[in-house]
Design goal:
Blueprint (H helix, E strand, L loop, with lengths): L3 H33 L7 H21 L8 H25 L3 E11 L6 E11 L4 E11 L2
């Protein structure tokens, strides 16, 4: 017959085996859920961040490039295009670092007919996390001094 110390040792061993099995099954199940359905793929916060902050960043980049309303429209459009590309590249890089693919594509820059220092910038926004994707068209009005 097994003495008390032997019984305790046997029970401790059985409990350790059961604990390891339960933890392994739990981890395996969590990983499976995460790959299939457990992750939240809501792109709304990311889209809101681009829509809220990209126009401000673009305005800042345009201000920094010293575009003047005294320049020709062609010159201003060229400088605005360059500022857009640089700002878009910065945003795209930050999103890539966080696991999202973002593309900001300039479609058109339209000078205002009423105000020579205002331009409408039309661009598309494509965002994906590998599971969902969203494409939007945006129009922002900028003014240069």
């Amino acid at each position: 017959m097994i003495d008390k110390k032997g019984q305790l040792l046997l029970m401790a061993g059985i409990m350790m085996c059961v604990t390891v099995m339960v933890v392994s099954i739990s981890i395996s199940h969590s990983v499976t859920l995460g790959q299939k359905q457990g992750e939240n793929h809501d792109l709304t916060p990311m889209i809101s961040m681009v829509i809220d902050h990209f126009p401000n960043h673009l305005d800042w980049a345009i201000d920094e490039s010293n575009i003047s309303s005294n320049n020709t429209q062609e010159s201003n459009i060229t400088q605005i295009t360059s500022s857009f590309v640089n700002s878009a590249n910065e945003f795209e890089f930050f999103f890539i670092e966080n696991g999202y693919a973002l593309s900001l594509s300039l479609k058109d820059i339209i000078p205002s007919e009423d105000d020579t220092s205002s331009y409408s910038i039309i661009y598309s926004l494509y965002l994906t996390d590998g599971e969902q994707e969203v494409t939007l068209s945006q129009t922002d009005l900028i003014s240069i001094s």
